[in-house]
Amino acid sequence: MAQEVVLQTNLPLPLFGRGKVRDTYDLGDRLLMVATDRISAFDAIMPNGIPDKGRVLTLLSAFWFGRTREIIPNHLISVEAADLPESLGATAETLAGRFMLVRKAKRLDFECVVRGYLAGSGWADYQRTGAVCGVKLPTGLRQADELPEPIFTPATKAETGHDINISLDEMKNSVGEDLGQAIADVSIAIYRAAADYALDRGIIIADTKMEFGLLDGQLLLIDELLTPDSSRFWAVGDYAPGGSPPSFDKQYVRDWLERSGWDKQPPAPALPEEVVAGTTSRYREAYEWLTGETLSRS
């Protein structure tokens, strides 16, 4: 039987916001975050989705929130259907595995990026300047080389388009010296703990981005955590510095779009079945390798 693909939810609840992937509903002092199977590339949302993608993002985030809660509190309340509002009725069944009930924190509008390897825009920046987001690095590094130490490279969070890299000092000027340093320190602590764990499971976490919020003056880890959408995962067996290792994310989609002749202006073309299947496989592998659990078929 074909796997169900959820591209949008229309629940009988006040809509708090709709992003590229998540539909979020307002429950007063809580939020209901639903991860759909939408996938975006080059700032455009594809017309067809990736089966199980939303479930992977939700369940993997919940897994990591559990593993890191001793480092910092987070916003997760529950992923259990019994805790959903009664007003949803039978609709709750369609949300199984793809929702998080969370505390409503005031989001700090920064992407908190930690890089442990030289990849992506960091590699391009290093080639130009010998630094990544202003953080000076040793000369002679190759693409995908491990950095001497993980580095914290924040960015302003953009609702549309690309985030803008800034320095830690610029972030501190916005949120304050103590809070800015606390965010940097805890981001690196989470990355180190997760990277060590993942390496034992056969995955290198090259880089990741996190978000934080404040609730009653307390710093909370919010949004998603250490998923293929927010992180660059490489299989240990595929890793070789000097090039770009294949990653557990939307690489199939980006590669196909580059070859398709699409001009990267909306509307985006529909993805062929083999690209959808390959992308689903990589998302599922990331979940199963990291958690040691088999993701049930939707």
Characterise this structure.
This protein is an alpha+beta fold. It has a domain at 106-238: 2-Layer Sandwich (D-amino Acid Aminotransferase, Chain A, domain 1), CATH 3.30.470.20. The protein is 29% helix and 25% strand. It is built from 6 helices and 17 strands. Strands 8, 9, 12, 13, 14, 15, 16 and 17 form an 8-stranded antiparallel beta sheet that branches. A 5-stranded antiparallel beta sheet has the order 1-2-3-7-6. A two-stranded antiparallel ribbon has the order 4-5. Strand 1 (15-18) and strand 2 (22-26) form a beta hairpin. The longest helix is centred in the middle third of the chain and has 24 residues, at 177-200. The termini are close together.
Backbone CA Rg: 19 Å
- Rounded to the nearest angstrom, the distance between the terminal CA atoms is 10 Å
CATH architecture of one domain, by name, is: 2-Layer Sandwich
- CATH topology group of one domain: D-amino Acid Aminotransferase, Chain A, domain 1
> What is the element string, with H for helices and E for strands?
EEEEEHEEEEHEEEEEHHEEEHH
